Design the sequence.
């Protein structure tokens, strides 16, 4: 917002900088202006921090969020900027829009409280899977995670137990299910704002988050795998559309989110495509893409819970 051309914002900035607002032109602000302004927002900019701010602004420009607009000629932190593509309104409520600048660690820090660990028993065996909290009461997961499973009365969001209301809503054909939660319980967890889904593209870099069981570990722990989309649209003999990725998806990752480097979710982990039993297997790991999720949730009357990016 500091580098925007919004008149109200610029009036505040110019007031702090003790400068008159140009009446007849857009005057881009510099990194030095930002360094002088931030202390008024309670942010320290002395010493090494000034150089860090300069580097961060340069990375925002490299990601296309800002556009360099010349220099002031002052010599120190003189580059000026204007807003480039900016932040899409669907992501503006959260911080995932800055993932291209800060990297996958931001994805993990931001989404870990939204990734669900789903547990229960099936034929006497304790099993688990993953899911993603979409709003204040709905967790999206894969249907095979909950089908024929006696779900525990609670699942965990970022380690916080949250009660489950009723049974899961399962699509009869697509590997999609929705679990309804106790709203008060979700309020105690830290729900991520600004979630948005889009369809995968060729070679999208991805991050998988989920709760596959870890041998000898005392408790369930979130794990992360990275890779890239190797095919964004594959039709299987079993029906439906899938996308393939190179990140390893272990049992227990099913239903967990697949997130791109722009902070948008591409879909959820569903299954692996492997060779016939008895032959050497080099599996492809598959996910359900956003378009397939939206279609399935629409058929369940739940399309509104999936925040899909509408570029128009």
Sequence:
């Amino acid at each position: 917002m500091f580098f925007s051309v919004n008149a109200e914002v610029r009036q505040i900035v110019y007031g702090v900088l003790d400068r008159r607002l140009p009446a007849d032109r857009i005057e881009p602000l510099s990194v030095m202006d930002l360094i002088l302004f931030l202390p008024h927002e309670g942010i320290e900019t002395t010493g090494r921090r000034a150089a860090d701010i300069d580097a961060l602004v340069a990375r925002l420009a490299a990601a296309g969020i800002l556009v360099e607009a010349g220099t002031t000629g002052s010599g120190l932190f003189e580059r000026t900027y204007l807003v480039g593509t900016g932040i899409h309104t669907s992501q503006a409520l959260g911080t995932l829009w800055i993932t291209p600048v800060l990297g996958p660690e931001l994805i993990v820090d931001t989404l870990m409280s939204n990734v669900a660990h789903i547990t229960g028993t099936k034929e006497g065996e304790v099993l688990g899977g993953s899911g993603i909290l979409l709003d204040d009461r709905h967790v999206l997961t894969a249907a095979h995670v909950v089908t024929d499973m006696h779900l525990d009365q609670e699942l965990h969001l970022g380690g916080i137990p949250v009660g489950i209301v009723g049974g899961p809503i399962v699509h009869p054909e697509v590997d999609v299910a929705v679990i309804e939660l106790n709203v008060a319980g979700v309020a105690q967890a830290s729900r991520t704002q600004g979630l948005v889904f889009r369809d995968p593209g060729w070679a999208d870099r991805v991050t998988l988050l989920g709760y596959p069981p870890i041998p000898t570990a005392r408790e369930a722990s979130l794990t992360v795998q990275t890779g890239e989309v190797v095919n964004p649209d594959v039709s299987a003999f079993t029906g439906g559309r899938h996308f393939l990725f190179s990140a390893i998806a272990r049992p227990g990752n099913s239903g967990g989110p697949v997130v791109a480097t722009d902070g948008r979710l591409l879909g959820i982990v569903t299954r692996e495509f492997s060779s016939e039993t008895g032959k050497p297997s080099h599996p492809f790991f598959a996910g359900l893409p956003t378009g397939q999720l939206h279609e399935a949730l629409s058929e369940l009357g739940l399309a509104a819970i999936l925040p899909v990016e509408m570029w128009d």
The CA atoms of residues 183 and 254 lie 24 Å apart.
